[in-house]
Amino acid sequence: MSQPARILAVDDEDDILFTIQQALQPEGYEVALAHSPAEALDSLEQAPPSLMLLDIRMGDQETAGVDLLARLRERGSDVTVIIISAMGQVDLAVKCMKLGAYDFLAKPFDITELKVTVANALRTRKLQDEVDRLRGLVEKRGLEGLRGESPAMRSVAGLIRRVAGHDITVLITGESGTGKEVVAEAIHGESRRADKPFVSIDCTAIPEHLVESELFGFEKGAFTGAAERKLGRFELANGGTLFLDEVGNLPLPVQMKLLRVLQERRLTRLGGKASLPIDVRVVVATNADLHKLIAQGSFREDLFYRLNEFIIALPPLREREGDVELLARHFLTRFNSQFGRQVPGFSPEARQALLDHPWPGNVRELQSVVKRAVILAAEGPVLLEHLPAELTGASHPALEPAAAPPEPGLAPAAAASEEAPGEALSLKEVTARAVQRLEKEMIAQALKSCRWNKVKAAKQLKIDYKTLYNKMREYEIK
User: What burial class does residue 412 get, using C-beta atoms within 10 Å of its C-beta: 0-12 exposed, 13-18 middle, 19+ buried?
Assistant: First the structure.
């Protein structure tokens, strides 16, 4: 039984929200209510909806809905939105349509019109998701989605070919942003399960108390709010591949249940009694040292050896000689197509800056840099000025930490070399360390300013929660 579509209605008028809820719940939808943009954002973070009904004006804010929609689009959210507008707000409704809203309803709206518009929007979204899924299969199937000509990546491709045909568990290791999910998709695409589902779950993105139900599903009435049976990711991936990203973050009780499922090839839903057979190939990934987690008591040793049937270690981008330029051209082509641009390439100076950068964020960082450059360059080649300051050495005063005075009796040159006495550092290594120090300071400042609320800090830094979590662990920010 499939999970009902979740609809989030955002309006400051209680009677409108009540009308929407009473009209749509009998149709089988799960309806969540929010009285303000702030409540809507909280609800979106807890459980992303299939569709949002959004009022343009709320309280004294004439454009509250428009501003919220613009903010969501800036954050990369592609949630389907139906605008609710009063008479005289047509211009604002049109602005919302330009921001990607599916349709708009004028107050007072007809209940039948509401139901039909919602059903059409959900049907359109389902079709689009299926098109995207099929396009992804075409673009990423097997090793075609794995880009890189360096010896390190040719070695990775060879390992994928060898293991893909065998139904054993694969552990993918590597720094954040190296493309572990791409490797998991390649393993799936090269296997006999290629025409079956590929289901992924990010173990850092789900609250600890929800991980078990997400993985194994639950029965109706299993806990408060469990109004219907829900299939877990294991059942959704049945016959195909389940990818567990950042498996080191699983809570210990879930680790124990995962071990049992992997050994017995059967699972029991939360609140259920029946033991169900499953046929799933499991691929896991981590950027953490699982041996350290075992020593700390936060990861089960027996689970590690169950997952450690075949290891693929992904190299960081700085060790993939020749791949930076290849990947940059690939991303340039992709974003030219996505944004309707005709950026022909990179200037010699911009190309050299890309090659000289140590890429602490790996492939994910390179992708973001090229996306930004394509937007800024518009039609001409990517120039140095289109690249972020950490690649070009340009100063951003607002981001530069105040220089600490040298210790008494210590000359500036000696202070600069104090970090690695007797060690001659290359320009690339010096740059990498400077970037890491600056990044750590920016993260610490954002966390302090947000009173250590990681969700708010991630928004302030304009990165996702998972990246912030990994960076805090990397820099040992407690």
Answer: exposed
